[in-house]
Amino acid sequence: MQKTTVLYPRNMICSCCFVVIRQLLEKEGATILNIKPGEVEIMYDPLLHNKEFYSELLAAHGFEPIFSREHQIVEKIKLAVIELVHKAGNVNSMIRNSDYLVERLGLSYAYLTNLFSRYEHITLEKFIILHKIEKVKELIEYDEYTLSEIAVQLGYSSVQYLSAQFRQVTGISVTEYKKGGYSRTPVDLIGPQSVPAHPKKE
């Protein structure tokens, strides 16, 4: 008799993660019934493995399980911010961050901000800013848009506001960053430990 269960792995932030998780689980006999950011529903043979086995398998590859409901909500907030800032194109300029998160998660913004701060030791507003600045870095490096276009795309009221926030977060100016030689922070590592822009190691 096959059993079904739902796993809640951390760090499911991109399509590559979906591929890796699918390969790991299917290799060990699980059938993927549904997979989406932060959640995987599987069917498996309990005579071969149990839920704990699959959770530990994912944890060993950087996808630690999330057990409590509040932790699951925090992870969904992080995934929603990543989706809005890094994947939604010009949507960020057309909808307020708070409205987007409330619509996605079905919870009040006040509840989401309080919960996020409690578990992540950084305000939700600061977390969003860090992601926006990292997206600015990416777009600068692509060199496909002017700084004015980047400001519009990410919902900044002016280039001056974007530039000031960029310096505040990274410790350098946009002009300095454009000269090259600085490292970016991987999306899944953006948070309270994020450091200012620093030169790439040779």
TrEMBL record:
One of its GO terms (molecular function) is sequence-specific DNA binding. Residues 75-180 form the HTH araC/xylS-type domain. PROSITE patterns: HTH_ARAC_FAMILY_2 (PS01124). The keyword Phosphoprotein does not apply. The keyword DNA-binding applies. Pfam families: HTH_18. InterPro entries: Homeodomain-like_sf, HTH_AraC. It comes from the Bacteria. Coiled coil: none annotated. Keywords: DNA-binding, Transcription, Transcription regulation. This is Protein containing helix-turn-helix domain. It comes from Lentimicrobium saccharophilum.
